[in-house]
Amino acid sequence: MIGADAMAKSLAAEGVDVLFGYTGAAICPFYDALERDTDIHGVLVRTEQNAAHMASGYARLTGKVGVCVVTSGPGATNLLTGIATAFADSIPLVCITGQVNSSLIGSDVFQEADITGAAESFVKYSYLVRNAADIPRIFKEAFHIAGTGRKGPVLIDVPQDVQEAPIQKFSYPESVSLRSYKPTVKGNTVQIRKVISELASAKKPLICAGGGVISSRAEKLIREFAHRFDIPVVSTMMGIGVMPTEDQLYFGMVGNNGEPIANYAMNNSDLLLVVGARVADRAVNRPDLITENKVLVHIDVDPAEIGKNVGPTIPLVGDIGHIFSEMLKQESIAKVPENHSGWLNELYNTKGASDAKKAKKNSEYADPKTVIEAISRLMDENGVYVADVGQNQIWSCRYHQVRGGRFMTSGGMGTMGYAIPAAIGARIACPGRQVIAVCGDGAFAMSMMELATMNQENAGIKIVVMTNRRLGMVREYQTYHLDGRYPMVRIESEPDLELLARAYGLPYLKLDGGSDIDKVVTAFLRQYDAAILDVSVDPDEDTPR
Amino acid sequence: MRKIYSVLVENRSGVLSKVAGLFARRSFNIDSLVVGETDDRTVSCMTIVSNGDERTLQQIEKQLNKKIDVIKVKTFDEPDAISRELMLIKLRYNKTNRRDIMENCDIMGAQIVNIAKSTMLVQICDEPENIETFIGMMRSISIVEIARTGTVALPKCTE
Known about the structure:
The complex is a heterodimer.
Chain A: H1 3-13, E1 18-21, H2 28-37, E2 41-44, H3 48-62, E3 66-70, H4 74-88, E4 93-99, H5 115-119, E5 125-128, H6 135-147, E6 153-159, H7 160-164, H8 189-201, E7 205-209, H9 211-215, H10 219-229, E8 233-235, E9 250-253, H11 260-268, E10 271-275, H12 287-291, E11 295-300, E12 314-317, H13 320-329, H14 341-355, H15 368-378, E13 384-387, H16 391-399, E14 406-409, H17 419-429, E15 435-440, H18 441-447, H19 450-456, E16 462-467, H20 472-481, H21 497-503, E17 508-511, H22 517-525, E18 531-536
Parallel strand pairs in A: 1-2, 1-3, 3-4, 4-6, 5-6, 7-8, 7-10, 8-9, 10-11, 11-12, 13-14, 13-15, 15-16, 16-18, 17-18
Chain B: E1 2-10, H1 15-25, E2 32-37, E3 43-51, H2 54-66, E4 70-76, E5 81-92, H3 95-108, E6 111-115, E7 119-126, H4 128-138, E8 142-148, E9 152-155
Antiparallel strand pairs in B: 1-3, 1-4, 2-3, 5-7, 5-8, 5-9, 6-7
């Protein structure tokens, strides 16, 4: 038995059934052992970055740790953007890279890159394996670190000679012992009681749900909590889906690109519970507005997030699921009012006034709002909707109606090209579910190579391309910040999407201003397998402000 | 505001770079950073002196605690700690200033540890502030070179 066998067997012991990767000389022993020792299926991607995005889509849908495995040097550096994307959104990944032989490390030989050094600031932890005998322990620790506390990517760099080194026998540890890593799960009872007493006296309480709620799998609990006490909820971009969009207590996404009513609710609440959110600049660009004249409770599993961007009145560290169940168990919870109709009416009235301002226009182009609303309405109830980055993302966040399914996007890093690979990863995780990737023509060009991976894996996803021949979000930014100068945003000479679809053997449907949107979207969603929907969007169309 | 962080870390290769990288990446200041082994060979102690506003100083502690190789972080203000720094300072001397240097060394508790025809090496171990004072005193004499260890510190005994 060699080190590579120990790597493969460790993955099997962790219950890994599929991984995403790209091979190369420095990772060859591992892939050989993977076939020899396990039934784990290796998905061969078309470029390494997408291995991490697919693993991310897989992890987000299953709740398991996603795994990607690539070779040394350029394979590893190509993976970096994917790792950083997962880090920004706290997605649990174990990323394995091959490395040149131990004796050559540091000598700049062929395909050598210091990947643990390069990735340091956006991994939760990293290992450079020196001895094959350490492999089982390191893998056990890596999965534990990636999947507990504030989740995130862990990198394991394994030199080729370590993969090839003989080992005596394989035994996988039962547990981990890390003296320096003990994430807080249970919330502090004193703090929990303080929150309840604030809830008991608040007139205008509000929950702002972030991605941490989904990461803690506490969506149901938050919904129940909100309904029991009649508390309105808003979400960050990563928190979309915590509440069904149509829920009467849900007031949409906050932030620069969010619903005015959601921002109104944030600024006018007297008790704000920020739950599993970082309070970063795009969600809250004026932290003073959410700290003035109100009690701010910040609940997060990562103590370093609390007080980083805003100073809360009551910090509460722990797992969101644990904390909310604990709150419900406290005797004093009986004092919290179960009716906030005054506050809710204020929100409904304000919302009605701003909704009326929206107007539609006629043109040769399809209206993104109408298209996204049609997709939401006509897609499977438990379908997965993956939005890319840019205008399509903002339109998706604003107009997609989450019912029983999932909404995913690259929130923190804003990585273009995320949607297609993440959707493929999600589809591989749940082959029975409908998965839709929505992207712009810019991001489509960054990720279309993965259509081949999709075909090879029979992981058909529905791809919506918002075509406006522009890098629309930047074009929009330039309108307001460059006095109408538009450098570097025209994407011309793109391939004919219909011919491209045919090249990949995919049905192609098109939507423009003259189309019957419901009819075309229905036909698109009813395609047996993968399909591309080309939506012609006005190059001058802005996102809602 | 200044803060001293006494950070117990796993004694492994790469840990110093991870901790130093954290300070660089988040634009935290390092006034001084000293690493040494502890009584436990598997544990090193880093003494880091930093400055910044209150939120930054709190973030430093939290971000250090997040590092998986960091076992324990103790934070204290200068008045609550005994801090020491060792300096070696090489001076060029002549007949006229030799007496003067020796007197100053006496006052400050510094020792001449090595001497040649025209240069001498002086060692001083004291609070960082006194080290600065000593450098000030020697500035009028010709300083050839200086090596300083940076601050090590432990909280004062309280019973």
